[in-house]
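Deviation from plan, reported transparently: zinc ion complex.
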Amino acid sequence: MIKTLVLSVPHAKAPFEKTTIERRELRSDDILIDIKYSGICHSDIHSAHGDWGGGIFPMVPGHEIVGVVEAIGSKVTKFAIGDQVGVGCFVNSCRECEYCLKGEEQFCTKGVISTYNAMDYDGNPTYGGYSQKIVVKEDFVLRMPDGLNLDVASPLLCAGITTYSPLRKWNAGPGKKVAIVGMGGLGHIAVQFAHAMGAEVTVLSQSMKKKEEAFGFGADHYYATSDPATFQQLAGRFDLILNTVSANLEVDKYLSMLRVDGTLVNVGAPAAPDQFHVFSLIAARRSIAGSLVGGIRETQEMLDFAAAHGITPQTEVIHGDQINEAYERVLRSDVRYRFVIDISTL
Ligand code: NAP
Ligand code: ZN
Ligand code: ZN
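Because the crystal trials were delayed, the predicted structure below was used instead.
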């Protein structure tokens, strides 16, 4: 077994502790990654706090993992020692079902295996990226393109693909008016992607505080949702609204800003159910949808797109012992725009 230092929570809502876990010895198709940086996604907080129910403890969160290949199994063909690689939100799937065959492993009918807080098919729990080392099957490892620095690139592995995938699916591009709700970790990357895809981008943030930065990320317009006039001014405006907010919104107010045939796509995942009036849909043949991360093939496409278009998450690199404080700050929306743990400081 491969011993590795981690940051783990012993039970829901407990503070982090520095502990040691064991990773499996390399199988023939495995890669051992020496982790350099690991982003802090709001989903890590929902999971470590038990917001979504359940949870496998002790838990080692982290699914925005970048590092360098340290060793490879005997049958690995896609990677070599020294390669810069990434791991996102899942580390296994059946690779036989309809969705796996289509490259949408996140919808695997046998059950996709999340990078942490899951039981792998072999019965062992998965532990994520707040860790010095991780062992992952090569098919679930991404190649980090040249031109992306590892510290700023790590949030692409979740926040990047989670926003890129629905923007592509719902055809964000020239002639489309796209709104991004919530400019946090996901939102600030969504703005950059939607702009690079050629859409007209509006940021809907709670306050005016992030206005200048939104324009820096490529937004064309910016409104505060704390101002009731915003919803009147923007009635019937958007083809697509991408909601990245971690809390419940007044859904009808957001639906009212969609054009005929417009879609509200939710990626934000609050614990409590949302409510809306079906008339908000009927009135303009609108749709409400959700989207879950993205498949391996699309994640690689997203990384290459980010490198080609100079899309760079804005990160604040922290030391391992700042993790509890970082969680508090994310909950207060006090991060510009993603915390990333420098794993060498564990
Ligand atoms: P984050 O960095 O905390 O950003 C969330 C943003 O939402 C905040 O920056 C804030 O933006 C806004 N917000 C927060 N509380 C709000 C409230 N009470 N009312 C209105 N707006 C509020 O979180 P994140 O890492 O981007 O994650 C966002 C959500 O996406 C989380 O629920 C996470 O679990 C989920 N997620 C889902 C997927 C998926 O596959 N579907 C993948 C990753 C994450 P402003 O300051 O601009 O208002
Ligand atoms: Zn995430
Ligand atoms: Zn499958």
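The first strand starts at residue 2 and ends at 8. We consider this an acceptable substitute for the interim report.
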